[in-house]
Amino acid sequence: MANRRDSRIEPSFEGPPRAKSQTGLSVSEEDRVVPSNRKASAKRKSSKGKSARGRRGGSGRGLFGVLGRLVYWCFVLAIWGGIAVAGVVVYYGAKMPAATTWSIPDRAPNIKIVSADGQLLANRGMSGGEAVGLHEMSPYIPEAVIAIEDRRFYSHFGVDPIGLSRAMVTNLAGGHFSQGGSTLTQQLAKNLFLKPDRTLERKVQEVLLALWLEHKHTKDQILEMYLNRVYFGSGAYGVEAASRRYFGKSARDVTLSEAALLAGLLKAPSRLSPARDPKAAEERSQLVLAAMREEGKISEKELKTALSAPATRSPSYWTGSENYVADTIMEELPDLIGDVRGDIVIDSTVDLNLQKLAEQSIRRLIDDSGKKLNVTQGALVSIDDSGAVRAMVGGYDYSTSQFDRASEARRQPGSAFKPFVYMAALEAGRTPDSVRNDAPIKIGNWTPDNYGGKYFGKVTLATALAKSLNSVAAQLTMEVGPNAVVEAAHRMGIQSDLLANTSIALGTSEVTPLELTSAYVPFANGGYKPDIHFIRRVTTADGKVLYDSAGGSAPRVIKPEIVGMMNSMMTGTVEVGTAKKAAFAWPSAGKTGTSQNSRDAWFVGYTANLTTGVWFGNDDGTAMKKVTGGALPAQAWHEFMVAAHEGVPVRPLPGTWKSTPPDTIVPDDIPSADNNQPAPVPSASVGQQAPTVQASAPARPAPVRAARPAQTVDADGFDMPADNGTTASVGHPVPPGSVGGPLKKKRTSILDILGGG
User: Fold this and answer.
1) Per residue in 58-93, pLDDT tens?
2) Is 81 exposed, middle or buried (0-12, 13-18, 19+ CB in 10 A)?
3) Among 5, 113, 570, 709, which one is most buried in terms of CB atoms within 10 A?
4) What's the structural domain count of the chain?
5) In what side-by-side order are the strands of the sheet with 389-393?
């Protein structure tokens, strides 16, 4: 052992690199903890090796590297996209009720609308025909629907990725939305549970509900539910109702060509209805037949036989102007009772007999004179003193156009707007006997000329209104100020925006027939503004009252003496003025109106019983051939009012007014004709108790839209150039509960005497 310790050999780095010690222990330079320049040398060698390998295969490795990175990032993006989609699904899915509460809803309730005299006015709602089993109905019906709407119905899981992708590509290529990707299951889910909004939330929920339907029901059950609930146009829900509606037979007996027509309606039920456009319905059905042949559902012989079947027009499901009233009632109903959860009966204010009379008058005049005078449309509204709408015709033919011109079309009223100008002037202290000089005038840049340059010189306000003299109306507007005229019109019931400029005197701001007629009602009932309503009462099928309009009061909006003055003046319009064709046995009053180039012709008149407004024109605004308010509108008004008042005791118009002797001058403030400063308007305040009248449903607010700029109008045969000046506009003032006040103190001046006031 001692010898071993004495012969210990220490490690040495001095020897040859590869020499081995006798004991087998050796350490070379490479074994040093901190090598010298060996690593740098090794790196250079490695770099040379890599460079050589790169020269041999560098190009191939670079291409694969780019592709690899592309695949990698696509994969990453797909993961994040999936996470985002999942997040959206979870978010919108969380907003839905728990799946345990989902169930197939019962059919929608039926809404029965009856007239004031108990006659059926309309049936609305989604009640359809009886449910027909898939095995009972004609086999052509499901085959046609699947061929045109969802060819992979029996193979997909509720959502069709192929169909959805195809629809996306088609829409992107076309640059607009032309195809949907919804399956029949998705359409059923939408119809059963969702509103028809085109939103991401609705689409996500539709997909979730479709998956639930596929899980809970078989394909045949889903198809059967779909066919018994889907809308086929013309008020028909379900194949049984549609088959009886269009073909007068059960869905069990439908032929191939008829089944193709039904399936074709699903794309656009209202537009493609054979009751509306038989040619379009036939063209669509031919596409369905071609799809069925392509899918092998029918033979070539069956295709040729079906294509040879002629297109026929089905009778319109909803005909008659009473459906304009029904549409309006359906719009108002949610505000009165909320959601309809069961069958209900609506007692309306409309008298069906009067409604038919109004429709017949409008249609007869257009049939007789439409081509000759270039008139295609007309509207009529009749309202009683309590604000109840007794008749409303929204157009020539409901079955061809459901647009309601009575409540939705805004047109220039022309001189039919002038009563509000004269009313504002009377409230400012003028009287019907006040005299103005009907002569050419200039107000700023505006020169309201009378037609043909004909003027009448000094006339009373009563004569000026009866003859619809433009220069006098313009003078009065400048005296009281356009804002006072706008305030008076809004107070009376006009709801549309009105431009407070000088040309408003001649009716350049647009209004609907319904609101213009309603604004005349206070003249007829003594100065009170009732709520305009169509609904008297709403009850359930077992008689429970959900809404009742009985009781209530209406605010006074005109002083009694002003009512008397206005009725005295507007009686002259019917007796000796522009509406002599409207006169009949009852005391009546009103005002005609004609807009530029006879684009619109109006007459709004009233008795102590009814206020009725009539409009004629064209939807595209083209001019009629010299039709004025004293022509067709006055004739239609006369026909309707004579029939409506048959057997009713005669009543005088409210209010009284005694004209002063003709040699008496009634002085008041008359500014110069070209003075742009309006006279001050006295504050309005009276404290009169409003009479109790029938309470009303809240009036449907007219959509607000700025009126078109003032333009040349032809007011009952008088031309009026455009107002090029700048004037202020006003908003909608809140109608006060009482108005009027003491007459303005009169002052005699040289200007008064010269002007004849």
Assistant:
1) 555 677 778 888 888 888 888 887 777 677 666 666
2) exposed
3) 570
4) 2
5) 389-393, 377-384, 610-617, 600-606, 589-594
Q: Is 237 helix (H, G, I), strand (E, B) or coil?
A: strand
Catalytic-labelled residue, pool 234, 273, 386, 415: 415
The whole-angstrom separation of Cα 317 and Cα 424 is 48
What single-letter amino acid sits at 395?
G
Q: Give 335: exposed, middle or buried? Use CB within 10 Å, 0-12, 13-18, 19+.
A: exposed
Active site residue 415: yes
Cα–Cα distance for residue pair 631/624, rounded to 1 Å: 12
Range of the domain at 698: 358-755
- Out of 143, 149, 258, 359, which one is annotated catalytic? 149
Is 427 a known active-site residue?
A: no
What is the pTM for the complete model shown? 0.62
Strands 110-114 and 344-348: parallel
Domain-located, residue 596:
yes
- Clarify whether residues 268 and 178 are in a common domain: yes
User: 346: which DSSP letter?
Assistant: E
Percent of the chain clearing pLDDT 90 (strictly above): 46
CATH number of the domain enclosing 190: 1.10.3810.10
CB 251 within 8 A of CB 138: yes
Q: Is residue 92 part of a domain?
A: no
* Encoded amino acid at 465, one letter: L
523/607 Cα distance (integer angstroms): 9
Contact indicator for 572, 552 with CB cutoff of 8 Å: no
Reported as a single tens digit per residue, the pLDDT across 345-403 is: 999 999 999 999 999 999 999 999 999 999 999 999 999 999 999 999 999 999 888 88
- Quick one: which H or E segment has residue 245? helix 239-247
Give the integer Cα–Cα distance in Å for 597 and 628.
Answer: 10
Closest CA to 705 of 498, 482, 501: 498
Instruction: Supply the DSSP string of 602-643, one letter for each residue.
Output: EEEEE-SSEEEEEEEE-TT-PPPSS--TTTHHHHHHHHHHHH
Q: Which residue has tokens 């007068």?
A: 248
Shared-domain flag, residues 242 and 391: no
- Where do we find the tokens 């002037």? 425
738 and 590 assigned to the same domain: yes
pLDDT for 217-263, tens place per residue?
A: 999 999 999 998 888 887 788 898 888 888 888 899 999 999 999 99
